Amino acid sequence: MEVVTFGESMVLFSSDKNLPLEYVHQFNKQMAGAESNVAIGLAKLGHRVGWFSKLGDDPFGRYVLHQIRGYGIDTSRCRYTSDAPTGVYFKEQRSRGKTQVYYYRRHSAASMMHPDELDEAYLADFKILHITGITPALSPDCLALTRKAVASAKKHGLKIVFDPNVRWKLWDSEAAAKEALLELAGSADYILPGLDEGQLLTGCSEPEDIASALLKPGVAGVVVKLGSKGAYYKSEQHSGYMAPFPAEEIDPVGAGDAFAAGFISGLLHGEELEQAVRRASAMGAIAVSVNGDVEGLPNEAELLQRMNNTEDYQNVKR
Ligand code: KDG
Questions:
Q1: Which of 21, 95, 118, 286 has the most C-beta neighbours closer than 10 Å?
Q2: Residues with beta carbon inside 6 Å of ligand 1?
Q3: β-pair type (239-242, 231-234)
């Protein structure tokens, strides 16, 4: 197995109309969650992935699990609970590229994941652990689970890729977020903050300074995502800006997860930091041009075509 990740995935209700939600009468049902988005992105690229979580023993929980399993992701360590429901969230599209989310996930099944439930032997079979800053924000037990997964990953020689993914609606305070996220960043091999997340974690404003501040001993690389401006990457040996791939931005939600999937895929292909960031940037550009977190994610051939620009991506046969 190659990559393991865990976290909360929810049922997502979104509308085709650019309207405030109080005026929306019909919703499309989808499934989303940052970690499962990354898992799906990697699975679509042909990687062997495991994802685990706790879901409500309810129709939405079954829906989420069936969707993720349908991508060929190993979900054997997922649990159902009848003590809490599967999380739900709604996405409001005010205008093209401008989205707002509303969570109904407090005390959800996933927030009840517990460190004692971590299957260390299972984790030990993977090469890379992907974590985000969302899971530790769900509950104190989820923070403890994330810490335990990080410690197990280190013990068993897995590389750790950390996306801070700050979700203000989930944290009690900025100080709590900063403390937990800096601790996880310090344990990671690769850190993938957005510019504002990097600013929060380091107090620096420029990508170069953010990357330097996060590149502590033991950290192999930092990539600061700059949205439509590309990305800045830094390791001990290399640093530089990656120009963005051109993209028509329709729905930015999920772009960071696509970026993480591309980056991890690059690592698994043995690419150097710069190449992995290029792969990540192409994935991000593809993701923003489709409505939905994972619906637009490519397979390996489509990704390579986009990267090599040998053919119009839109014309690829699906
Ligand atoms: O990164 C996309 C995620 O924000 C979305 O899928 C929902 O996991 C989610 C979250 O917690 O916001």
A1: 286
A2: 32-34, 37, 134, 167, 253-254, 256-257, 293
A3: antiparallel
Whole-number pLDDT of residue 293:
84
Nearest CA to ligand 1 atom 7: 33
Please spell the DSSP secondary structure of 6-73, one letter per residue: E---EEEEE-SS-S-GGG----EEEEE-HHHHHHHHHHHTT--EEEE-EEESSHHHHHHHHHHHHTT-
Q: Are 172 and 143 in contact, with CB atoms under 8 Å apart?
A: no
The per-residue pLDDT for 316 is 42
257 among known catalytic residues: yes
**Is residue 183 scored above 60 in pLDDT?**
yes
Q: Whole-model pTM above 0.85?
A: yes
Tokens of 19: 């309207």
To test the ligand 1 pocket, which listed residue (6, 103, 257, 291) has its Cβ within 8 A of the most ligand atoms? 257
